[in-house]
Amino acid sequence: MKTAVKTIPGTVSLFFTVLFSYAVTVKVFHFKSFSSQLEMAPGLEGWGKTTALIIIAGQILIIVLLCFRSKPLPGLWLTLGMLTFFTGYIGYLLHYGKNLPCTCIGFFEKVICKGNLILNMGLMITAIGGMITEQKTVDKN
Q1: How far, in Å, CA of 93 to CA of 83, rounded?
Q2: 53 in any annotated domain
Q3: Long-range contacts, stretch 88-97, CB < 8 angstroms, 24+ apart
Q4: Can you give the pTM of this predicted structure?
Q5: How many CB atoms lie within 10 A of CB 34?
Q6: CA 55, 24, 98 angle in degrees (round to 5)?
Q7: What is the pLDDT of residues 84-98, one digit of tens each?
């Protein structure tokens, strides 16, 4: 059981590394579509390209930090922060928005905003689980 707990942070880090690598790749290859969808999002008018570049850069930074297997906590914290921001924005759109542009591309393109909200909440729980088990592992050493 102790060995299983020790592998959780690495598994969670690997999961998010793969997820964000996929997301960055799709966003880069479909940059024009991604940035134009962001351009239509409430509050981001005129900021589509800049926002797209910030999101891509943030995800690349997270990928790099998660690759440091000995210390994944900073990457997991940034993962949680990014997911919290995305989830809050989607919640805001669902509550106040009328035209809901979906900026999801690739595999997640068919997910509606409510589904995306639930998916992000699950991913947040996953990140928190990885952080908790990593902290327990650090505290025991």
Answers
A1: 15
A2: yes
A3: 90/116, 90/117, 90/120, 91/117, 93/41, 93/42, 96/42, 97/42
A4: 0.85
A5: 23
A6: 55
A7: 999 998 888 888 776
